Amino acid sequence: MTGWLQVAVLVLALGLVHRPLGDWMARVYTSGEHWRVERLTYRLVGVDADAEQRWPTYLRSILAFSLVGVLLLYSLQRLQALLPLDNGMASVEPSSAWNTAVSFVTNTNWQGYAGESTMGHLVQMAGLAVQNFVSAAVGLAVLVALVRGFVRRGTDRLGNAWVDITRSVVRLLLPLAVLATVVLVLGGVVQNLRSGGDVTTLAGGSQFIPGGPVASQEAIKELGTNGGGFYNANSAHPFEGPTAWVSLFQVFLMLVIPFSLPRTFGRMVGDRKQGLAILGVMGLLAGISLALISSFQAGALPEGQEVRFGGPLSSLFAASTTLTSTGAINTQHDSLTPLGGMVTLFNMMLGEVAPGGVGSGLYGMLVLAVVAVFVAGLMVGRTPEYLGKKLGRREMTLASLYILTTPAIVLIGTAVAIAVPAGQAGMLNSGPHGLSEVLYAFTSAGNNNGSAFAGLSANTPFYNTALGLAMVLGRFVPIVLVVALAGKLAAQGKVPVTSGTLPTHRPLFAGLLTAVVLVVVGLTYFPVLALGPLAEGLS
Amino acid sequence: MTTPVLDRAPAPETAKPTIAWAPAFAGAVRKLDPRGLVRQPVVFTVWVGSVFSTVLAVLHPSVFGWSIAVWLWLTVLFANVAEAVAEGRGKAQAASLRKAKTTAVAVREDGREVPAADLRPGDRVVVVAGQVIPGDGDVVEGIASVDESAITGESAPVIRESGGDRCAVTGGTTVLSDRIVVVITSKPGETFVDRMIALVEGASRQKTPNEVALDILLSSLTIVFLLAVVTLAPVAAWSGAGQSTTVLIALVVCLIPTTIGALLSAIGIAGMDRLVQRNVLAMSGRAVEAAGDVGTLLLDKTGTITLGNRQAARFVPVGGASAEEVSQAAVLASLADETPEGRSVVVLGGGAVDRPAGAAFVEFTAQTRMSGVDLPGGRQLRKGAAGAVQAWVRGLSGAVAPETGSRVADISEAGGTPLLLAEKGPDGARVLGVIELKDVVKPGMRDRFDELRRMGIRTVMITGDNEATARAIAAEAGVDDVLAEATPEDKLALIAKEQEGGRLVAMTGDGTNDAPALAQADVGVAMNTGTSAAKEAGNMVDLDSDPTKLIEIVAIGKQLLITRGSLTTFSIANDLAKYFAILPAMFAPVFPGLDALNVMRLHSPESAILSAVIFNALIIVALVPLALKGVRYRPGTASALLSRNLLVYGVGGVVLPFIGIKAIDLLVSLIPGIS
């Protein structure tokens, strides 16, 4: 009963917020005015904010920005001991520093390390928290470029990446994060700059109580679908998730931007129904996933679950964190039933599109829509077009490579890890469950989710390097393809909509798109799922 | 002329050509050469799998291993059969065309004989009755009747004359009468017939843009599934469920989109072939594809929307004459008038009556601008242009009813042509009434335009008439827009404007002044009766010279794309069932729980895998007729088409293989040696 109520409250809240937020985001990316603080930023960085970029320049800006992010974050960790606010932590070891730097820049937030015993406040605040904001902003910028590709006609300009990133942070993520922080602090999440200290407990023992800027970190961790916890236990730690409603609020934060973006998309393309159709597909997939995970978890042993708040909230949290590319956890996914765990895996395997990460979820879904339109469009007797754009050889090459990329990373990574001794060494379990753990790690990294199945000693040079590669490729190869696609689309004219045009705003198309997501993307993983969670769950 | 095109599936009259399987199989075997197969990535992947599985079967012989190898080869073979069958149809046509190219010598204007193969553009040759025209060209001197049946299949001869829009002649056709001088316009080996032969044989076939895009998607799916299976090998081995290479190859072949991969080129060839069967030659597959995308149709009024001639539509009595009187007089006056207009007056007046004995018919001349009849007893009837008839009546001191002028003006304004009917009787001469001649819209055109509108296609009527007349006819026919008093420049501008807005434009044309517009249009259909310039500029030629066919061409283009999309959907949807057949077969022996996925309750792992492979191969052959004929196409909105095709080919594609694989499994389990 409580479970139903929680879902109802969540859906209601998302329903209420997605319109104003979606509309606001559309305004953010279409407005011609710069805020004063933004002007200042542009002047400091030396960017002409009114100059629009062609797609290669837009892409270079995004990639360069991310590269600088990786280098900075890597240096901060490696030099931690020499810098202030290190809270007595040593400098981070190279493979772990590389893994963490990449992890936060790619919006994955896979954590091979334990937060409270590795990172001091400086790294947490100036490194990780900053990337929590800007990596989400990068996702949004890429999305906006793609949407502009659909909207614009006959131009080689996609907008200005620096402006899109800056505005995402200044007008969207920062205000929302401040708001969310206040709510979280009110809900009892810790927020201070202390390094913690020993206290004497009621029973007379001594316990170390860590402190830190947790609530502010927590807010952007969920909002930006990042997922990197301040503590190793992530949202299961009572300082990160003190009460049931705070936990629910965190779920809301993860979902709110991804579920509002279809509205933004609809607004920007000038047809809100197009956004609604996409929202419908995301909602449907998310609903199916939640239903499945809840039914698989019903009556399961509470071991590893968030026992304070009950099973349903654990399922809801697990579904939401894997459906968005957040990866925060309040439950150890390793302890879910095999089939429940398979659902979290499958959620990520869909490519993080229902609703997916901030920005990345929608651009992934739009690429899948391109594939769906291509096949279905032919069935109405026209060469396919989506939102007035013809899907020809160039467009399909990019879309095809996109759907090829993540499965390739995940499957090759898993196969290599399982075949080489260095990979096998990290596996704590044998049999199907051991396979699930490795598969989960590469699925999570390749899809930039960041949650872990545990049961895998991933803080080894092999996994740090391999998963780091999976994260980089899983993030930036799709980004290259999407921005290129945006460029090709923007250069086209626009085909007028007639009754002979494939309608892409009706339930029929939404159903078709759902089927394409499940069949084209999902089926790829069927064999390996059969050997992992299915073999375990059906035995 | 009025072939109701859209209310039936295209090609019923020719849709039943039997499939020549035997020569197709021979051709398919020849096509096993991998150098040719590389062009089809999916089929090539199967070919590689066949080679591997054969080697494995030789090294580790077993009934299962050999069965898989054989069926994989059959899969490749069936894919080739599809293409060979499609090509085979063109071969017959090409053979008959080759017969047309039999002239060896040409006679120059100066009387010298030269080999026909040496003719260059600009050469002038003389062709007289009984001779074959040695190359494509334009008549510059004389007039002749020409038998073009070798190309068009139409046995009635056509007139070709110098100057004007009927000057083009085609090499290989025969002059039946008179003598003409022809200036050659084609290079040797590149004549119209040469190009036709290449086209129908598919020799010059290039992949069309959409085909290329689909190929890319299919290749990418092939790579994804290849990766899924290749990476499965170490994972399965680690899990203690290691698989033989043969099984893994079988899995790859079943998962990659072999069905559409095998049928893709056959669908393209068959689409061109459907046009050829309708006597339309597309110079490129690109044009056929573009036809499906057409957003605007430019249709000439005369001959396409209206019947070629104006017809009597109404009798308007004036000056107190009765309707009966007018009607009878009109019929009598037109009895000898053999023009279409004259015959239509008789029809409107109730049909022909016996010619009154002693009646003298007056022929129409350019001077009098009247025709009619002088009946015994002095009664004279005249019909003709308003001015001429009024002058005739006044000349006989007769009465012109005062309302005559306004009636005539009304009809003119409404787009019709008024003819006056007058008589000279015992009481003097008088105007009896007005005959209204109108352009008659072909029956069924309005329905067809409604249908086109539902398909999202705009129709624009092109006419030389004035705006008012054009609007009136347009309203009656139900076209969306008109271009009145159209000059070639206007047409060109209209096409450019439509294209600017993102619409693809199709049009027909025959005159030299149509050439720029034909070249500009996305689908330009030149009439075979037209000039060489027009034929050169268009990307299709209609050998029947029937402009109505444009609508049919659009339907064929759409059908081609729908067939491609439907079979792709079907092919991908098939994968689900194959997974349920093969995965439990592979892994259930080690993980018994996975037997729950064996929903078809297949006999054994080996029979399950073999059944999936066999189904995968047989479905190709089963779909060859559909690929050649094209899926059923009913014009309608995109939504209606999508829901129907999704239901049939999407849902059907999910369900059918479950049934098919189960049925095959029942048979396969009987094979001795299959566990």
UniProtKB/TrEMBL annotation, chain A:
Name of protein: Potassium-transporting ATPase potassium-binding subunit
Summary of the function given for this chain in its UniProt record: Part of the high-affinity ATP-driven potassium transport (or Kdp) system, which catalyzes the hydrolysis of ATP coupled with the electrogenic transport of potassium into the cytoplasm. This subunit binds the extracellular potassium ions and delivers the ions to the membrane domain of KdpB through an intramembrane tunnel.
Domain of life the protein comes from: Bacteria
Compartments it resides in: Cell membrane
Gene name of the encoded protein: kdpA
GO cellular component: plasma membrane
Native organism: Klenkia brasiliensis
Principal location: membrane
Entry-linked InterPro entries: KdpA (IPR004623)
Keywords: Cell membrane, Ion transport, Membrane, Potassium, Potassium transport, Transmembrane, Transmembrane helix, Transport
UniProtKB/TrEMBL annotation, chain B:
Topology with respect to the bilayer: Multi-pass membrane protein
Family named by the database record: Belongs to the cation transport ATPase (P-type) (TC 3.A.3) family. Type IA subfamily.
Spans through the membrane: 41-60, 66-86, 212-235, 247-270, 608-628, 648-671
Keyword Metal-binding: yes
Subunit structure, as described in the record: The system is composed of three essential subunits: KdpA, KdpB and KdpC.
EC number: 7.2.2.6
Gene Ontology MF terms: ATP binding; ATP hydrolysis activity; magnesium ion binding; P-type potassium transmembrane transporter activity
InterPro entries in the cross-refs: ATPase_P-typ_cyto_dom_N, ATPase_P-typ_P_site, ATPase_P-typ_TM_dom_sf, ATPase_P-typ_transduc_dom_A_sf, ATPase_P-type_domA, HAD-like_sf, HAD_sf, P-type_ATPase_bsu_IA
Source organism, top-level taxon: Bacteria
The reaction(s) this protein catalyses: K(+)(out) + ATP + H2O = K(+)(in) + ADP + phosphate + H(+)
UniProt KW Kinase keyword: no
Binding site residues for ATP: 337, 341, 364-371, 383
The protein, known as: Potassium-transporting ATPase ATP-binding subunit
Chain residues that bind Mg(2+): 510, 514
Stated role: Part of the high-affinity ATP-driven potassium transport (or Kdp) system, which catalyzes the hydrolysis of ATP coupled with the electrogenic transport of potassium into the cytoplasm. This subunit is responsible for energy coupling to the transport system and for the release of the potassium ions to the cytoplasm.
Active site: residue positions: 300
Alphabetically ordered keywords of this record: ATP-binding, Cell membrane, Ion transport, Magnesium, Membrane, Metal-binding, Nucleotide-binding, Phosphoprotein, Potassium, Potassium transport, Translocase, Transmembrane, Transmembrane helix, Transport
GO CC list: plasma membrane
Domain P-type ATPase A, first and last residues per copy: 104-201
Compartment list: Cell membrane
